[in-house]
# Entry
Amino acid sequence: MTFSLIARCPRTGQFAVGVTSSSPAVGARCAFARAGLGAATSQNITDPRLGPGLLDALANTHTAEAALARVLAQAPHPGYRQLTVLGASGPGAAWSGAHTLGVHAQAVGEHAVSAGNLLATARVPGEVVAAFAATDPETELGARVIGALQAGLAAGGEAGPIRSAGLLVVAAQAWPLADLRVDWHDEPLTELARLWALWAPQMHDYVTRALTPAAAPAYGVPGDE
# Structure
């Protein structure tokens, strides 16, 4: 029902989560990231409490494996959950419980973790991680994550059609640099890429508007002259 990618950019310090699903509003339920700390997903038969729990545990344990172990030791019904977590350094970690749905798999790369369930093929997470690793590290992290998810879809994606997608990117500030969601669409990754193309050229301007308003660029809308 879902496949995802969490990733970090050592160049910028950003973390990102990209996720897509056959069910609606996947970005609201499954994607979690915290500036300066890391990123996580909680998916399959989803418990959204586990995403923040993974990030809290990561802050206390400092390694993804230890954070995952702590959450699994305390979480109710862990066999129904599929989780990923990635910190600022070291390898990420993933878990697929015994009751994970359908064909499922996970893959861990140097700066990324992917997992999926109800997949067309178990190759999908590995293809997502490989596609991410092959992207230019100078490219914005959000674009790299969307491209990797598109590679996963091209490799088979879910067993059925996907309907929703989300992208969450955090940087140094206390709010998301990007939080884009497609909650129900026939081609949600295509629509997510369109929204990214609209948002990316101006997203850093909105940080400037918040932190240094006197230096902020104009909005370019009627009346802002």
